[in-house]
Amino acid sequence: MLFIEDSYLKDFDATILNIDSNKIILDRTAFYAKSGGQPGDIGKITLNGKEMNIIDTVYDNKQNIIHVCENSNDLKIDEKIKGKINWEIRYKHMRMHTALHLLCSLIPYDVTGGQISYEKSRLDFNADDKIEKEEIENKINQLVKDDHEISYQWITLEELDNQPDLVRTMSVKPPRTNNKIRLVKIGSIDLQPCGGTHVKRTKEIGNIRIGKIENKGKMNRRVNLSISD
Ligand SMILES: [Zn+2]
């Protein structure tokens, strides 16, 4: 999971560990696998100068990262490949994902769901109050302009159990690596467990537009957002 250490890594070398029809497992990868509302990466792998498209990246039920290859006929186990993620799409996902952290920091309710995509993203809050669209839009863009730094800390499961307030998302269990949980810290405004990919500074997000705030029933307010380049 090279994206955990370096979310800006676009190219990497790897060895094929397993092939099951068009599903490829590598010994290391920069491809982010679909999870936590963030889509799996697409991109290419190259073997002996021949490029093959990766059309999705997902986890299997053993938490292996599966690269779904458009045409895997030329691939064999133990072969060395070069991987390249589609950076344009991934970087947009990173900006969107970081924007959702900022949104979460501004709205004091638990998160019950969320979805990130290239065009727009959303978070669902366990709230019955009205959420003021213009107020949130002004505040979130101020956080972007303040250019907060995004950094990481690792804690043990016991340490997390002692700080249950950290977990804002009721529907997603925090990801764990070697029995440790990664915390994502945005300046002094947000700290929560997350295994997704983020930008390094909030200014990279760009201008955020808050879209419709939908009433999805009792105790559910859906906040949509998009970002302009
Ligand atoms: Zn995150």
Structure description:
With 229 residues, the chain is α+β, with helices and mostly antiparallel strands. The chain folds into two domains: 2-85, Elongation Factor Tu (Ef-tu), domain 3 (Beta Barrel); 90-228, Threonyl-tRNA Synthetase, Chain A, domain 2 (2-Layer Sandwich), CATH 3.30.980.10. The protein is built from four helices and 14 strands. The protein has helices spanning 2-5, 87-106, 133-145, 157-161; strands at residues 11-20, 23-26, 43-47, 50-59, 65-69, 80-85, 111-116, 121-125, 150-156, 176-177, 180-186, 190-193, 207-215, 221-228. Strands 1-2-5-4-3-6 form a six-stranded antiparallel beta barrel. The structure holds zinc ion (ZN). Zinc ion binds at residues 97, 101, 184, 194, 196, 198.
Brief synopsis:
This protein has four helices and 14 strands. It has 229 residues and is of the alpha+beta class. The chain has a six-stranded antiparallel barrel.
List the helices and strands and how they pair.
Layout: H1 2-5, E1 11-20, E2 23-26, E3 43-47, E4 50-59, E5 65-69, E6 80-85, H2 87-106, E7 111-116, E8 121-125, H3 133-145, E9 150-156, H4 157-161, E10 176-177, E11 180-186, E12 190-193, E13 207-215, E14 221-228
Antiparallel strand pairs: 1-2, 1-6, 2-5, 3-4, 3-6, 4-5, 7-8, 8-14, 9-11, 10-11, 11-12, 13-14
This protein binds zinc ion.
Zinc ion (ZN) is lined by residues 97, 101, 184, 194, 196, 198.
N- to C-terminal distance: 28 Å
What does the average pLDDT come to? 92
Helix content: 10-25%
* CATH level 1 name of the largest domain: Alpha Beta
Radius of gyration, taken over Cα atoms and rounded to an integer in Å: 19 Å
- Low-pLDDT stretches: none
Q: How would you classify the helix and strand content by structural class?
A: alpha+beta
What do we call the CATH topology of the largest domain? Threonyl-tRNA Synthetase, Chain A, domain 2
- Supply the CATH architecture of the largest domain: 2-Layer Sandwich
**Total of DSSP H or I helical runs spanning 4+ residues:** 4
Proportion in β-strands:
35-45%
H-E string: HEEEEEEHEEHEHEEEEE
Number of strands: 14
CATH homologous group name of the largest domain: Threonyl-trna Synthetase, Chain A, domain 2
